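Memo to structure team: turn this sequence into structure tokens by end of day. - J.P.
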Amino acid sequence: MAWDSQQTRRRLLEAAITEFSAYGIAGGRVDRIAAAAKANKQAIYAYFGSKDALFCAAFEDRIRDFHASVLFDEYDLAEYGGRMFDKFEDTPETLRLVLWYQLERVAGPPLDVILDSNKDKVGRIAAAQQEGKVTGAYPPVALLGLARSTAMVWHTQIPELAQLFPADRRDRREMVVRVIGQILDK
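Reply from structure team:
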């Protein structure tokens, strides 16, 4: 059987997504990633250079998937929030990687994929505000942050509070959309 470096790299990336979403950067272990990918640890360093670079590659993979599957619409931020909520419900590993990134990468260098995405979204919201189609009551970056935070509200609470949440996914999603809509109406 011929050695397929792209396939090995992809297996390592998928194993890293699973490992880092469960344990974070500090808790993730390259030996478990290599074993899950049916590769050796040296392959991780050959393809990615370091454990931190492997985390960044795994995180960027999930962020690119997020951007490809969650349509951003500056004219309907409420429904954008609903789509973010759906993505986090459907791919909890993406949400967990986002949370680990926020916790463990606060001092690390920013990732271009996130900088570019934020710049694009904030610029589009600002343009929609100038057109008078989106409220100017809040700065564009605040609207983006509020939509993102509201989309994650059900996913980022302590377990004792989460036990009290509505059990129905549609109800939780509808509240996300409604709250963002109320912010936009002010």
